[in-house]
Amino acid sequence: MKVLIVGSGGREHAIAYSAAKSDKVDKIYCLPGNAGIAEYAQCEPIGAMEFEKIVVFAKEKEVDLVIVGMDDPLVGGLVDCLEEAGIRTFGPNKAAAILEGSKAFSKDLMKKYHIPTAAYENFTDPEKALAYLETAKMPIVLKADGLALGKGVLICNTLEEAKEGVKTIMEDKKFGDAGNEMVIEEFMTGREVSVLSFVDGKAIKTMTSAQDHKRAGDGDTGLNTGGMGTFSPSPFYTKEVDEFCQKHIYQATVDAMRAEGRPFKGIIFFGLMLTEDGPKVLEYNARFGDPEAQVVLPRMKNDLIEVAEACIDGTLDQVDLQFEDNAAVCVVLASEGYPVSYQKGLPISGLEKFKDADGYYCFHAGTKFDGDQIVTSGGRVLGITAKGKDLKEARANAYAATEWVQFDNKYMRHDIGKAIDEA
What we know:
By secondary structure, the chain is α+β, with helices and mostly antiparallel strands. The protein has helices spanning 10-21, 51-60, 71-76, 78-84, 94-101, 103-112, 126-133, 159-171, 239-259, 292-296, 304-313, 391-402, and strands spanning 2-7, 27-32, 42-43, 65-68, 89-90, 120-123, 140-144, 153-156, 182-186, 191-200, 204-212, 215-217, 221-224, 229-232, 265-275, 278-285, 327-335, 360-364, 367-370, 373-376, 380-388, 410-411.
């Protein structure tokens, strides 16, 4: 098979790594890719939102399967364009990707189908949002309705902060058109857990659990980012929690989307909060999480291509999804200053140390070639992932491996997976 991956981050590198292991695959392309993905794939400088060029490229290369990794092209309808051209594609179409594309839609869906989530209200008028805040309990959460690179969520501890947040999202348009509508929801407390799942329109098979660290600084301080690290599995995701979620959240979401005439095929990412009142949905994503994919996919025993094809063909119920009985931790190496401003083009050394290191992975997020030299080209540069027999060993291995790689202004959190010690 010839496989084409759309995207350029650590998630797409993890997908390329998994696809390369498949006996069914003998050629991988990636648009636009990065310096790490180039180890497995032929990368071409076509952007993820250049739909016409992607379709033409896929037809020219006689691609058998396209995997769309990123949220923007999914929400924008790339899958529809590819399918109209007769190209098999793994990922939700535009009608289904609204599950991530509009937080207002997903909150209304959960309310309608009694899927547990935080109490909320939707607003398109900033004045009405401000009036609502006067009666609301603090702290409170403000969410830009649309896609905002994982950064369009503000947690406000005081009424003054919340009012400023409304201005930031709806008036200053810090997140662009994503802030045309806004969700204001109650602040939930508890452990956060991420559960990724494969979906074929009717059936759902969940992957092993994970937990992300969104804040830029140690101790969950600083600005929200795309993710500074993650671990899998979560010790807080118990058998009892899983049984509840399978019944009241996972299958319920798939059934709700089908009932709405928006059958979902691809990946649903469930962001959960384990509250005192039971598990509740924080958010949905319509693709692999990043960096969750970097700890989940290396632990998956199944052939990713076979599972993706089962999702497309509606035969997922015949798949026995299995994961290794171990653990993995990913620590993101970022450029100092991320997520605000940071330098690019800095040479990276030490990458060759991962070549023969079994159970250690270096997933490229923001890298490119400058001649033969690999240099930084983004805020999140690399995801250093390591396995271990348990979470503590995996964490120690991952942090040890962060020392193998060097570049100027290298920055990371030092407490990824620290919650493991409290479990």
